[in-house]
């Protein structure tokens, strides 16, 4: 047996999330069905770097699985792609040590959230951007990002009913906002994220962009450690798991 690491991209529009569940089509289910075909009916378990929620996309999800198939990386990629639906793409397949674990060995993750800030929506990107008509103050949102970078207790930015064991302290290495024409992109890179953390951060920062909050309010929201102190949860369909980094 050999352990294999694969990098996947997927359009989350028609998925009920990554992890297999009783009701709803999932990425894990489709990937494992594809691997079952390659392994002549034998089931193969896939372990991912983490879950993504219903509607969330990925450009760089990483997973691993054990296989008795001995194929070079390029042939693995071609064979794997041939048994997957068109809304999942295999970007890379490489052999790794048996000790490698896609979830526990991840040292950083990057998420990106995309806003279409214009009077009219972009019809052809409606499944991948959140349309906001009111002009947003990008400079104010960039200033607000300074308050959330670093190591903080992000309780205020976590779904209250989330089953988070232990501390809610996380280290956000980068929080940044960029703008190009009508597109605004939020970039978050950290060593770990809480449930709904990125979407709640975006919803709160949008409040700053609309002038409903001051940038320095983010410090008070962190200090409150209360979900009610933060803004609303931004829609899932504009969120991307962009990259997972390993040592």
Characteristic terms for this protein:
247 residues; alpha+beta; Alpha-Beta Plaits; 2 domains; 10-stranded mixed sheet; 5 helices; globular
* Name of the level-1 CATH class of the largest domain: Alpha Beta
Q: Say what oligomer this is.
A: single chain
Q: List low-confidence stretches.
A: none
Tally the helices: what do you get?
5
Structural class, by secondary structure, is alpha+beta
* Global outline: globular
Percent helix range: 10-25%
What's the main sheet like?
A: 10 strands, mixed
Share of residues in strands: 25-35%
Overall number of structural domains: 2
Give the full name of the CATH homologous superfamily of the largest domain: Pseudouridine synthase I, catalytic domain, C-terminal subdomain
Distance between the termini: 24 Å
- Briefly note the CATH topology name of the largest domain: Alpha-Beta Plaits
Please, what is the average pLDDT?
Answer: 96
Description:
This protein is α+β, with helices and mostly antiparallel strands and 247 residues long. The chain folds into 2 domains: 2-96, Alpha-Beta Plaits (2-Layer Sandwich), CATH 3.30.70.580; 107-246, Alpha-Beta Plaits. Helix content is 22%, strand content 32%. It has 5 helices and 10 strands; from the N terminus they run E-H-E-E-H-E-E-E-H-E-E-E-H-H-E. The protein has helices at residues 27-38, 73-82, 138-148, 197-209, 217-224; strands spanning 2-10, 47-48, 57-67, 88-96, 106-117, 130-132, 150-153, 169-180, 183-190, 239-246. Strands 1, 2, 3, 4, 5, 6, 7, 8, 9 and 10 form a 10-stranded mixed beta sheet that branches. The longest helix has 13 residues, at 197-209. It is globular. The model has no long low-confidence stretch (mean pLDDT 96).
């Amino acid at each position: 047996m050999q352990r294999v690491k694969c990098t996947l991209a997927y359009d989350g529009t028609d998925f009920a999330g990554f992890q297999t569940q009783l009701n709803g089509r999932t990425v894990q289910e489709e990937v494992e069905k594809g691997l079952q075909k390659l392994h002549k009916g034998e089931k193969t378990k896939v372990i991912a770097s983490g879950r993504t929620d219903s509607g969330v996309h990925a450009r760089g999800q990483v997973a691993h699985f054990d296989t008795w198939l001995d194929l070079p990386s390029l042939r693995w990629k071609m064979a794997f792609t041939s048994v997957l639906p068109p809304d999942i793409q295999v970007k890379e397949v490489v052999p790794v040590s048996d000790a490698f674990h896609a979830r526990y060995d991840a040292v950083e993750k990057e998420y990106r959230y995309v806003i279409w800030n214009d009077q009219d929506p972009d019809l052809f990107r409606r499944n991948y951007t959140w349309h906001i008509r009111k002009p947003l103050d990008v400079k104010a949102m960039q200033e607000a990002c300074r308050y959330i970078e670093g190591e903080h207790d992000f309780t205020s930015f976590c779904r209250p009913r989330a089953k988070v064991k232990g501390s809610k302290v996380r280290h956000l290495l980068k929080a940044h906002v960029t703008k190009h024409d009508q597109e605004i992109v939020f970039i978050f890179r950290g060593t770990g994220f809480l449930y709904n953390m990125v979407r709640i951060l975006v919803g709160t920062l949008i409040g700053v962009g609309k002038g409903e909050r001051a940038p320095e309010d983010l410090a008070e929201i962190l200090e409150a450690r209360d979900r009610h102190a933060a803004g609303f949860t931004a829609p899932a369909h504009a969120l991307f798991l962009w990259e997972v980094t390993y040592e």
